[in-house]
Amino acid sequence: MRLRNYWLGLALCTLCIAPILGQKDQIAATPPMGWNSWNYFHSNVTDADVRAAADAIVSSGMRDAGYIYVNIDDTWEGPRNAQGEITSNSKFPDMKALGDYIHSKGLKFGIYSSPGPTTCARYPGSYGHEQQDANTYAKWGVDYLKYDLCSYGTIMRNESHGDQQVAWTMMRQAYEKMHQALLRTGRPILFSFCQYGRDAVWEWGAEAGGNTWRTGTDIQDSWISMTDIGFSLSGLERYAGPGHWNDPDMLEIGNGHMRPDEYRVHMSLWAMLAAPLLAGNDLSHMSSDTLSILINKEVIAVDQDALGKQGYRVSNIGPFEVWVKPLSHGEKAVALFNRSEDAFPMTVELKAVGFRGSAKARDLWTHQDLGIIRGSYTATVPRHGVVMLRLARPKS
Length: 396
Ligand code: GLA
Fold this sequence. Notes:
This protein is an alpha/beta fold. The protein has 12 helices and 18 strands. It has an 8-stranded parallel sheet with strand order 9-8-7-6-5-2-1-10. It has a 6-stranded antiparallel sheet with strand order 11-12-13-18-15-16. A two-stranded antiparallel ribbon has the order 3-4. The longest helix is centred in the N-terminal third of the chain and has 24 residues, at 2-25. The structure holds alpha-D-galactopyranose (GLA). Alpha-D-galactopyranose (GLA) binds next to loops.
């Protein structure tokens, strides 16, 4: 009898622990955070730039704020050797050593490839070498793969003979193939789809093995590009969750063509969207304004909230948008976005964001407690600006 209780207890205990362990070990349980070389360095990125980024991510405090992945984008690739294995080019003399360097700083190492024969910048892709490449990445200590459709689009066109459904199936299979190859390495590698949202990737990306998927076109360092891309994720919230996230593309904060208020909109919107936060600026030379936006811990906490819910639009009256994001413990993040050309008073009705009567409020950019607010809250929001709040039920 006692023995039966023992086994029963053990079984129950295993059942209750397993999901907890699963969650902890899950890749991208919260949206990935880190840095990617493309938005600033483009094709010019070198080993030295990536090491400098790793150094700066630590010395600036970004690592401790959650930015962990250091990702090399396109243009690291060299020719294949006699065995067909991918090598790096002269800008990256030793990928394993670079990976070790990144890991020695408590960071993770990301890399880039394409399911096509060439990448978007026309370097060698993984076509026909998927398992070999996955094995090489694992050998180098890679933790993150961005897989960019690029020239595979041509293969799809040629082989589908104009049948769009066949083309989409080929695309999905190409991503699934690399997912399986990554799994077979036995190394946990975050898999980031980049195919610009084609065939409503949010509907099948998670099933095909994606931890993140780009929802659209490449971001530019401009107000129009950033807001077009970011606000268009409204409606996709039901597809995001722990382990699988909509990806509106990497951050442009600090690249110089938007004003600080606009970069605050960028950071706030991406946090409301539970989007990956991959800085895309030159971390070795950033202003204190840029850094303070990137490491606003209260805004990061909204992005990284364990509930893993993407926020959604509550209202938009012309260029004035109110968004809400459910957080753990019944709290909510609320963002008032002013997309107009003038400062404007904006109001959020508490009942519209799920609070009855009153809420305890904190401003996440001024870092001030606003006390108990009742019924509604009004703030003047700068042009191309945001006011972001965290709301909780008042203690009764
Ligand atoms: C595509 C991607 C970009 C970047 C470049 C590299 O345009 O969308 O994010 O990776 O390729 O060539």
